[in-house]
Automatic annotation (TrEMBL):
One of its GO terms (biological process) is carbohydrate metabolic process. The lineage of its organism: Bacteria, Bacillati, Bacillota, Erysipelotrichia, Erysipelotrichales. The active site is at residue 81. Its cofactor is Zn(2+). This is Ketose-bisphosphate aldolase. GO terms for molecular function: aldehyde-lyase activity; zinc ion binding. It comes from Amedibacillus dolichus DSM 3991.
Amino acid sequence: MYITLKETLKEADELNMAIGAFNTHNLEMLPAIIKAAVNQKTPVIIQTSCGTANYVGHKNLVAVCRSMADEYGINVVLHLDHAKDFDEIRKAIDAGYSSVMFDGSSLPLKENILGTKRVVDYAKLHNVSVEAELGTVGGTEDGIAVAQEDVRYTEPEDAVNFIKETGIDALAVAIGTNHGQYKSKTNLNFDRLKEIHNAVNIPLVIHGGTGVKEKDVKRVINLGIRKFNVGTELLVEWNRKSKECYEEHRENISNRENVVPCLDIITEIVEHKIHLFKNLDN
Ligand code: 13P
């Protein structure tokens, strides 16, 4: 079924697991991600930046997610990632996205609350879930860089207040991850995550999943992470394979010969991640 973020994270909470949220950059990548979830028999969150949504077409993305969810009988959420502009969010909701993120993390707290509340009010009218961010995750996302001196961890007390004031469904936390970190892995602040987890009672979201050490996945899930965002790893591996294929093949070959090997890699990586996010004992 095509469902909301709130619904899928509730189920994840009951199972003490996280749902993988994978960024697609084009229409091709999307079925490869969903197929991995089908193979692993779990729900999946497809997320797009505003840039990807405008490039592919919001309604096209909604249509593919809906039809694949029906065809394969799995739960799929389509989520707008890191939107800072209300009009972009409204466009996604009106086209049928089932979840959106308002990213007011660079705003002063009061303005972040006001902006988030405005999104929640509109989203609720359309039965769409809302994720918001408090604190600042480092790194680069869709070309926008956050300098290390601007990184701020999420304050647990602020989080309690923020959730009460806004009525969001999920909270993205800043605990040491960086967007776009793929050449190294990050050191997480588990103590801070624990404090946040103890203070709030909604699902928590980790951004910059590519840079998280595999051995830390279980630990953060046990501390309340329910949505695990992964983008850069897929992008980098797609680009690497794609380069190889285009160099190897003659120019008038079917484009599928260059694209399908990239899709296979995407499915393989997503399956591996989903398996980790199931938080099984072995
Ligand atoms: P990475 O691209 O670093 O995996 O982060 C993805 C993300 O957090 C999307 O919001």
